[in-house]
Amino acid sequence: MSIEVIEVSPRITMPPAGSTVAGEVFRQLLQQAIRVADQANSQAVRMASDFAEVYRREQSVRLEYETKLREMRLLERQSTRYAEDLAQMLRSERERREQLESALEAERVANEELRRTGLQGISHLLLAATIKDQTTGAHLLRVRKYVEAIGTRLGLPAQIVEEFGYSSVMHDVGKIHTPDHILQSEHHLSTEEFEVIKQHCIDGEVMLGQARFFETARAIAREHHERWDGRGYPDGKKGDKISLAARIVSVADVFDALTSKRPYKTAWTIEEGMAAVIAGSGAQFDPEVVATFQALQADGSIERVRQEVATAQLD
Ligand SMILES: [Fe+2]
Ligand SMILES: [Fe+2]
Asked: Average pLDDT of 151-164?
């Protein structure tokens, strides 16, 4: 803001004496006074507007400052809340993880318990089956070992191989319901008798209940007489509609039945049994399982299983 100095002009022309100059002087003085007043007035107006301008600028700076301050406070509040939320999230995340870990531990314990109970259940079932048919003990043991060897050779995970193995021994568990005279018949079965035999697949599946532990065992019990070409029983399932476990058990079970002595037949040699299995490849059996079984015969695994079980029987 600038302050202007108002100058009063000293240049007043003095009128000649005795003329009507008094009026002229007055007029000039008046005009000068008006000019001075005008100047003072416009200077005051300028000052006022300068002041208004400064005041306006200060106001806007203040407003801006207040707005900024408000924004900062808001931001501060938000970040405080955010930090609290984050801390809360971390806390509940940790709690959740701890809960999950203890739930997993509880599940592991329950699974172990289930496994033990399941394995106990299997040995009870097998005991019952063995009492009914004296030959089954060695048969089941060999089938289990063949199944595990095939599974391993197919590259299945160890856990699955184990599951297939212990599940395979229950393939004929439904035969507990089959009348002895049919089970131990030494002559050809009639159509009616064969219908009764077929029922052991369904009975076995039902006997094995609902537990997850017996899921594979149920599939094996139900499907171990199904055929790759769909002409088996009880459901006529075909190809990979039959579970892999049952396709493997089918080969192991038939091979062992052929190479064992039964009331109605002598034991076939390994070569004869293998020839029959190969003849059934793509018809009765899954070709991949047959090829795997052939590879096991070639490397001596089949012979080894037979010797192991024979030794175990002597012990
Ligand atoms: Fe069977
Ligand atoms: Fe069998």
From this structure: 96
